[in-house]
Structures are given as C-alpha cells and as structure tokens.
Design brief:
heterotrimer; A mainly alpha; B alpha+beta; C mainly alpha; A: mainly alpha; 10 helices
C-alpha cells in the first residue's frame, strides 16, 4: 500500500498540440475520473475555506467536554483534550493535502532533471545515477521515509522532505526511460542531425513527451504520499501537536479506541476518501493521456 | 476395544489433570525489556521481570520500609562508614552455585567494575569489602552514605550466580542465572520471556505457579483486550483512561499504588546560551508558570483523576513530602502579578521540548492551554526521546518536559538534580544552600534528621523552582478475577510470592 | 541467460556498496545519542565513556565503516545495542514470522484478486467491471494502519472473535498461529489483492483479444473452457511475475501492520530499532532487505526473460 505504483511509460507522441481536446473528451467520459476529481476538489475547497467555516478553532479546548461522542454541538465528537474533531479534520486536510502535493513536487523537481540527464547523456552519468536510484529503490519506501524523518526530526516539513526524497527514484526511472525512448525517434534524430542544441532538444522534444506520464505518476504518488504522511504522523514523526493532521489524530485515537472510537473513525475515513480521489483521478488521467488506446 | 477406550479416557484424564496442575501465569508488559542482566540493564520493565528472576539482598514493604531478603540483617558502625551484612545460609542459585559472602563480594565487584555496568554510580560509595565468614560481609565506604541500603533493594542488590557471570561475562543477559523464585527458560525478543519455577527456591512454598510468561504488548487497548479475552492473566500500567471500563468489568480487578517517580518541567536556568530567557533567568516567571497550571484539571483531563497531583520531588503521600508546601491551587491573577513583577507584564513566550508520545504531548497541550491564559505562550517542540535527552544534556533547550521513575531512598529523587554539578542537573542550577541541605541528608541514618534536611531543600526548591513538578504517576495493574494475593508496591514491581489462581 | 545473470550480478555490486554506505551513514545522520539512552536514567559519565569505547563510537567514521563492512562480509552484523543479541541471530529469528505473515497475506490476496480480475475483464465495460475496479482502488487507498486499528476495535474489542495480538510460532501451534495472524494478514493483503486484481484484469484483457482465444471461440468451445483453459492460463504468466515482486513489497508493508498487531517480526524490529537508536539492528536489516530486494528483482527479470524469449535487451 505504501509502495509507489509504477506508471508504464507511454509511447512518444510527436503531435502533441492536437491532443488536448481529445484528452479532455476522454477524461470527461470516464465516471471514475470525474468522481476522483470531485472528491479531490471537495477536499481542496474545504481545506482552503477552513478559516471561514462556522466551526470552533482547531486548538480550542474545552475541559468540560473531553472525549464526548458526536452530538449536535460537535458533529464528529471531541478529542482527548476537548477539541472539536470535525474542526481538526478540516484544518488537518490542509496538512494532508500540502504534504501530498509538496512531497511530490520535491520528488519531481529532483527526479525529472536527474532522469533526463541520465537518459540524455547515457554512459557514465547514466550508470552513476542509475546505481544510486537502484540503491534507493532497494530500501523499502516506508522504512526509508521513517529513517529519514527520524534523521530530520519530527515535523510536517521534514516528513514532506523525507517522503519527497523517498519517492524520487521512481521519477528518475520514469524520466530516464521516457527520455531514452524519445531519443530513438526519427524526428529527434533528424533534429540532432540539423544541429539543434541540447537545451532546445530537451525543451522542445523531451520534456513535452515526459509530461503526460509524469503527470499521471505524480497524481498517483500524491495518493501514496498522503498515506505516507499519515503513517509517519501515526508513528509520531510527522505533524506535531497541537497542530492537527489526520495521521497525528489517529496516533492519539488508538489509545482511546474503546472509549472514543469516533476519534479514530473519521480521520481514517478522510484519509481513505482523499487518497481514493487521487487514485481515481490518476487512473482517469492515465487512460485519457495514453495515446495508444482509444 | 473397550479396554482401548478406557485407556484413552484414562490418558486424557491424566493429561487434563496434569494440565490443570501446570499453572502458567501470563503477564502483559508495556514494553520489551532490554538486556536481562541486572548489572547492565536500564529499563523499568526489565526490573519487573527481575522481581521473579533475581532476589535481592533486601526488599521493601509497601510502606517503603527496608526488610531482610537474602541478607538477614545489617549494622552500621558509629561513623556510618562500615556496613556489616549477615546472609541467609540456605540459598542456592539456579545453577546450584551456593549463595554466600564470597558470592556477594563477586557481585559487588561486578557492579562496580564491569566495564559496561550501569550500577557504578549506585555503589560508588563502597570502597572495599571483606568476607568475614561464609554468611557475613563487611563493606567499607569512602564517606557515610545513608542511601546505600535502599540501592540493595533494587538492581544493585540483585545477586547473580558468580559461576554463570564468570563464564558468560557481558553476555550473561542471554541466559541469566540468579537466586529468585523462577529461573530463566527462554526469551524471544519483542515477543515473550518465559521463566519456570525454581524447585530449590528458599521460599518455594509461597510460589504457586509452575511458570510465568511475560508478553510485551505496547498498545494499551490491545493489552486490555487480551486480558479480557483470557490471553493474559494480568497486565501492568493499565492506561488511566481505561480504569472506569475495568472497574465496570466483573471479570477483572484493579490494584494501584502511587509511584515513587514524578513528571515535571525542567527549565534551563544556567546551561549555556539557551538559559538566557525570562523563564531561565527569573524564578518569578517560573513560579508564575507553576501557578498558571491547574494540576487537578490536568490530572482529570489526561488521566481521569487516576494519577496523583504533585509539586515536590516526593508525592504528597510520601513520608518525605514537605507539608508546609501543599499542591498549589491555580491562581491566574497571582501568576500575572508575578510576571509583572519580573518585568514581563506583556507575557512571555517559551519553548518546551516534549517526548513525542501521545500521553506526554497530551499533558503538554493541556499545560500549554492553561499557561496561555496567564500570558505565557508555550511553543511545543516534540522530539523523539533519544533526541530530547541529547539536547537536554547538551543544554540545547529552553525547558524540557521530563520525568523520573523514582527511587526508594529520597536522595535518589532530588540530589543529582539539584546539587551543583549533580549528574542529572542538566540546567546547571546552583544554590549552595540546597547543596548543604542535600549533602547533609546523606550523612545520617536517622530518618528524623534526614527529614529536616529534605524539608529545608524542598523549601528552597519552592522558591527557586529549578523543576516545576506536575504529577506523580500511579501504577495501575489489571488482574483477572481468578487471581488473589497480589500486593501493590510503590516501586511498580510484580512480586509473585503468595499470588495464586483458582 | 548466463550472460544476462552475470552481468546483472556485476552491476549489483556497486549498488550494494552504495546501499551499505547509505545504511552506515544512518548512524551519523540520526539525531540523538544512542549512548545517552543506553546509559540509563542515571547517565553516569564514566559509563558513557566506556560504552563509546566499546562500540568504537570515538573512531573516525570511515574506520567504523570499514570495520563494520569487513565484519558484514564475514556474516557478522554486530550486536544489538539494546540486548547484546547478535543482529544476524535476531534477523534469523524474526524473518520466519514476517514471511509467514506475508505468505498468508499473499494467499488471501490471490484468492480475492485473481478471480476478481478475471470476472472484471470478462465483463469489461459493464457495471460489474466498474464496481470491481472501484473496490480494488478502495483497497489501494485505505491506509492499512487505520484498517488494522478498526479491525482490532470491531473484531477483538467489540466482538471478541480473534485475538488482537499474541503471536504463536507456526511450528508450535499451527492453528492458533493462523488464528492470530488472520487479521494482520487480511490487512496486509488488502492492497495486494487490489494490485493483483488490476494486473489480472489487464493481462486477461490482452489475452481475450488475442488470436488464439478468438480461434478457440470460433471452434465453438464452451465460454467457460475458453476463459479458464485458454485465457487465464496465458494471462497468469505476467501475473506470476508481478506476484513475485509483490511478495517483496509485502515484506516491506509488514512494517506498520506488525507494529499495530504486536507481531514480533522484521517490521516491528526495524521500527523499534529506529526509535531506540539501535544502530546495529537498523543497519543490518536495511542492508539485508536491500540486498534481498535487488536479488528478487534480478530473479523476476530472469523469470520474465525465460517466459518471454522474444524480449530483447533493454
């Protein structure tokens, strides 16, 4: 579950511009993709609107209402020091989404350039980058993230860095494979033959071809990263109290399973839903962007 | 055919009766012990296993009086520098090695001189020893040390078979050999430790189980679920928040004892740059922080009132507690006045480091919310315990939420923390008056004299506030109703003498 | 084939060296002083100095690395800082536990995943397919530590059907062993079942469109026979390769599951060791899993080549 799904590389597509409308049309027809989009959008909006919603503050404590079951006053109940669980979940959505997106951006920002360089330069550069990638891939993703998060010290920022670094090898491999296959295309070879420079070559031919699989992989990795952030917070290595995050809420909730099951139920469902949303979206994007299949 | 049936039935009957006789006690522990060598181990939970495995020279009563165990008696010379102990003559170790004065001498030597001994500081005052006869040993101290006897009621007093540790050296822990009621059978790390009854135990008639199995289960909910399901017979450190549910359960019983330890906040008052802040520089700010905390509410919210509130190194129930300074009521106005007096009427912001486990962070979040109302803004820095400890000893902290597991002798709860240069005085607090009081308390073996010294020390502590005490944990055991004879001790140990199951 | 294998093994050597350097540097990277924790509450300075000496923590880092790597080559991974137990012995003790968990999870995953994939492919485009996909995706999306605690709450605490912990070695009491591992295996197997279902589905789809299935159908064979005898058999080839790789992932996925169900396996060992700063154990485990992972990959590639002779070098 915490392993990162691999996107198969796509066949290079020389006629990019004309595809946009076709992709959108395919995407629109897929109920799963739309459902995913709606779920993700919902959580994004809720997270953004958190400061404006009519809910108690996520840090507001009420000693008189410690671990109270869901009621009209507290729709999802209260937590171990009398804070509103719903409010903490809404604010916690910010942490989860941020963790998912930022760690994937880190992984893409490090992985794509390295992968492109490896695929473009070949030879020793490629060998060196590939060995490091393999070494990183050989350590199980979650163990790597746990060790890195422990090394950096427990905080949300550090958890994002740890997850980002742990997810990087997947993007290196994907970008490298894609670059390698683009480089063998006739139109790239003729472009090289007429003396198009390295930068122009990468910019005009390689990056546009890398973009679709990276987008798909990125979306799916956001799903993995959100779970990973929750797992790290669950182990006490992510978001730190009193700031809310779904994983951190579960970490506390497991001590009160019997007395206050709602503390564990709702944050877990939120993680599940948002991750499902990103997975559906990623699948939909893959089907829509894949030029091979109509 | 008939005979065959009868034989089978007889065999089954024999099997079932032998099963009924072979009683195994299953105890759920909160964590997995470290190395099972009393000279090298450091965890609290390890001591729980030793209570069944390794007998000590002396023991304590539930009221903290020291009573004979492997030693039958002891005597101090006038100056308090010589301790003569007489020993039982009917004890053998699990491997048959006889227990005598030579064995005690070898054990003292190991505690003091094994390279990786964790007991060195506990027996440091012993300078030399002399085997007077088979059952008498005389120890000579470098200076009077009233705390020594209490050390012998814990790991320093546990007697290991010299034959075994001479052969195994530092690896003694993989197959410990002691003189307790049970002997070591097997251990699977993070899974279980199995001990079986030692037939030649000198108090064998008090032991009613053939074996005892310790199962480390970190999750409190799971531990309790296992007890309910009958997979455990008893568990230690029940979560305070589970007390109500166990009380309501007819099949279970509860036992509790206020621990010897405490939890508190240690501000950095003098260790490097980090001490340069209002909290570190002004005892008024520290007193304000203390007054801003509603200790009762803290206990109610986090522990459902099951723990004990506190404001001194000793619990209010302890004979060493200074009754002139009762646990203060929360007083926000007084706290604000103190802040104004300290010149920070607009409030202060301090960072408190806390171990990132759910209970300690919950405690600090409650304190954080309470202090905020007095104008003290607390920023929490949650760290893994290993990091917290390293930062604390390096002086890299403004304030630290940390506790102490507690010692039988009062000295163990205060001396090292408050005297200048004390081994655990991480914030480098210095007050010559408290040094004098605490050093004097070590010299006399008369409790009344010592009590006066500790009263004086506590009075200074209340003024200087080098540590803000918050609460004292209460040991809570949950037992299956079929068990009887269990007695709760403030050291949190599980002594199986007289415990039985029907 | 031999050439391929030897080349892959040669390439693996620098990777393994890199892993070992990375693994060793963890010790310097992790904050907090292990000796401070090991010295116990009293933190006696003499003892701290003695421990540093004993574990050679005062030596320059590269000296420590070569000493460690040299011992590792001889199969000695050092001793646990916490219990003095040899790390290799610990690994040998914990590995069977995690393998049992992973095997049970894999069986559960196959029993659910493969039939679901076949049905889904056969009913492609219908609501059955869509629903099966949604369920599979849900399986991939549910955080397994949450699923674990929810199951404990429901099955152990509320219903009292299965124990929430209490591992029994399979060799001692097979039935009880399976009983205690059932819930964790289910939790661990959920995501794998989903992955298997998706792979089976796509493999079945491509096989169902192939010529020989069309031929078989044209011959008038019964649909059931076509599906099972012709299509599934061929579709299983890539599925088996994937399964081999998934097994490795299961071992890694056991980390949190073991933590929650208090199973004394590999995953619990490594997480506890990270928190206790038991460096020797962390290093030993990450090194072993890393090497195992590399070999699993080589084996999977080799198997794939054997099954697909057409595949060219890439």
């Amino acid at each position: 579950m915490t392993a990162i799904p691999d996107t198969q590389s796509f066949a290079p597509d020389p006629v990019l511009p004309k595809r946009k409308s076709r992709v959108w049309a395919k995407f629109k027809r897929s109920p799963s993709a739309l459902l995913g989009g709606v779920i993700v959008l919902f959580f994004v909006i809720v997270a953004l609107l958190a400061p404006f919603l009519p809910i108690p503050g996520p840090l507001e404590t009420d000693w008189g209402a410690v671990r109270k079951a869901p009621s009209a006053a507290h729709l999802f109940g209260t937590d171990e020091i009398g804070r509103d669980v719903l409010s903490r979940m809404i604010w916690g959505a910010q942490a989860s989404l941020l963790a998912g997106v930022v760690s994937v951006l880190i992984a893409v920002a490090m992985g794509v350039p390295l992968g492109v360089i490896a695929g473009y330069r070949r030879g020793w550069t490629d060998a060196a980058i590939s060995r490091v990638t393999e070494a990183l891939l050989a350590a199980p993703f979650l163990i790597l993230a746990i060790a890195l998060a422990a090394f950096l010290g427990p905080s949300l920022t550090n958890a994002m860095i740890a997850i980002g670094v742990s997810a990087t090898p997947v993007f290196i491999r994907l970008a490298r494979a894609q670059t390698l296959s683009v480089m063998t295309e006739d139109y790239v070879e003729s472009a090289r033959a007429i003396g198009v420079g390295h930068v122009a070559l990468i910019w005009r031919y390689i990056l546009p071809n890398i973009f679709p699989p990276i987008l798909v992989q990125g979306t799916l990795t956001i799903a993995t990263a959100i779970i990973a952030e929750a797992a790290l917070s669950f182990l006490g290595l992510g978001q730190q109290p009193p700031a809310p995050s779904w994983g951190a809420m579960l970490n506390v909730a497991k001590n009160f399973l019997e007395q206050a099951p709602w503390m564990a139920l709702y944050p877990g469902m939120a993680i599940f839903l948002v991750v499902l949303g990103f997975n559906l979206l990623g699948d939909g994007l893959r089907d829509a962007l894949d030029p091979r299949d109509n | 055919m008939q005979i065959g049936k009868m034989l089978t039935a007889a065999a089954l009957l024999a099997l079932s009766t032998s099963l009924a006789q072979a009683q195994d006690l299953k105890i759920g522990l909160q964590d997995d012990p470290d190395i099972l060598d009393p000279d090298q181990s450091r965890t609290f939970v390890g001591r729980i296993v030793y209570a069944s495995l390794c007998d000590k020279l002396v023991d304590i009563t539930p009221d903290l009086e020291i009573v004979p165990a492997l030693a039958t008696g002891w005597e101090w010379n006038e100056a308090g520098t010589e301790l003569t102990m007489t020993l039982r003559d009917d004890v053998v170790f699990h491997d048959g090695t006889p227990f005598n004065a030579d064995a005690v001498a070898a054990n003292l030597d190991r505690s003091k001189n094994l390279e990786t001994s964790r007991r060195k500081s506990e027996v440091r005052s012993i300078e030399s020893w002399e085997v007077v006869d088979d059952t008498t040993i005389k120890m000579t101290l470098s200076a009077p040390d009233a705390t020594l006897i209490a050390q012998f009621a814990d790991r320093s007093g546990m007697m290991l078979s010299p034959t075994a540790f001479e052969a195994a050296g530092e690896d003694f822990g993989s197959a410990p050999v002691c003189a307790g009621p049970f002997k070591f059978k097997e251990r699977i790390q993070q899974d279980r430790i199995v001990l079986e009854k030692f037939a030649d135990y000198y108090r064998a008639d008090e032991i009613n189980f053939d074996s005892v199995t310790f199962l480390p289960i970190a999750d409190t909910t799971v531990r309790l679920a296992n007890l309910r399901a009958g997979d455990l017979d008893m568990l230690e450190r029940l979560a305070a928040t589970d007390v109500a549910s166990v009380e309501a359960d007819d099949g279970l019983q509860l036992e509790r004892a206020t621990s010897l330890g405490y939890q508190g906040i240690t501000p950095n008052v003098g260790n490097g740059e980090a001490a340069n802040n209002p909290l570190g520089q002004s005892n008024l700010v520290r007193k304000a922080l203390s007054l801003s905390i509603d200790r009762n509410a803290l206990n109610e919210v986090v522990f459902e009132g099951a723990f004990a509130t506190g404001n001194q190194p000793f619990a209010p129930t302890s004979p060493w507690y200074n009754a002139d300074f009762p646990v203060p009521e929360r007083d926000i106005e007084a706290a604000k006045a103190l802040l104004a007096e300290a010149g920070v009427a607009d409030g202060v912001t301090i960072e408190v480091q806390v171990a990132n486990n759910p209970v300690q962070t919950q405690v600090m979040q409650v304190v954080q919310a309470m202090a905020a109302e007095a104008g003290i803004t607390i920023e929490l820095a949650a760290k893994e315990f290993a990091t917290l400890l390293a930062d604390q000893s390096a002086g890299n902290y403004t304030a630290s939420q940390i506790g102490w597991s507690g010692r039988v002798d009062p000295d163990g709860n205060i001396h090292q923390f408050m005297t200048s240069g004390g081994g655990l005085n991480d914030s480098k607090y210095v007050n010559p008056a408290i040094d004098t009081a605490l050093n004097e308390a070590r010299l006399s073996t008369d409790p009344a004299v010592r009590k006066e010294s500790y009263n004086a020390a506590v009075a200074i502590q209340q003024e200087d506030m080098p540590i803000i005490y918050l609460y004292h944990p209460v040991w809570i055991w949950a037992l299956d109703d079929s068990l009887s004879g269990f007695q709760a001790y403030p050291d949190g140990m599980i002594r199986l003498h007289g415990v039985s199951q029907n | 084939m031999l050439g391929f294998l030897s080349r892959r093994l040669l390439i693996a050597i620098p990777t393994i060296i890199l892993i070992s350097i990375f693994v060793f540097s963890l010790q310097k990277l992790l904050p907090g002083d292990p000796v401070l924790v090991m010295a116990g509450e009293e933190r006696d300075p003499d003892l701290i100095a003695a421990l540093r000496e004993k574990y050679r923590l005062n030596d320059p880092i590269f000296v420590q690395y070569f000493a460690w790597a040299g011992n590792a080559l001889r199969g000695d991974l050092g001793i646990s800082l916490r219990t003095n137990q040899p790390v290799t012995e610990l690994i040998g003790e914990k590995l069977p536990v995690t393998i049992q968990l992973a095997v049970m999870a894999l069986i559960i995953a196959m029993v659910i995943g493969i039939p679901a994939g076949v049905i889904s492919a056969y009913k492609k485009g219908t609501w059955v397919d869509w629903l099966a996909n949604l369920i599979a995706l849900s399986g991939l999306s549910v955080p397994n530590f949450w699923l674990g605690i929810m199951l404990i709450l429901l099955v152990s605490v509320k219903l009292g059907w299965l124990p929430a912990s209490g591992y029994q070695p399979f060799s001692e009491d097979p039935l009880q062993s399976i009983r205690t591992m059932l819930m964790p295996a289910l939790v661990l197997g959920t995501a794998t079942a989903a992955t298997l279902m998706r792979h089976t589905r796509s493999a079945m789809l491509s096989v169902l469109q192939s010529d020989y299935v069309r031929t078989a159908r044209a011959k008038g064979l019964r649909e059931h026979t076509v599906l099972i005898k012709h299509a599934l058999r061929n579709a299983l080839v890539p599925v088996v390769t994937v399964t081999a790789l998934l097994f490795g992932e299961l071992l890694a996925g056991a980390v949190l599951t073991e933590q929650i169900f208090t199973i004394p396996g590999f995953g619990k060992l490594v997480v506890d060791a990270v928190f206790n700063r038991d460096y020797a154990v962390v290093q030993g485990i990450v090194l072993c899993t890393g090497i195992a992972f590399i070999f699993m990959n080589i084996l999977a590639d080799a198997a794939y080549r054997l099954l697909n002779p057409r595949m060219r070098d890439t």
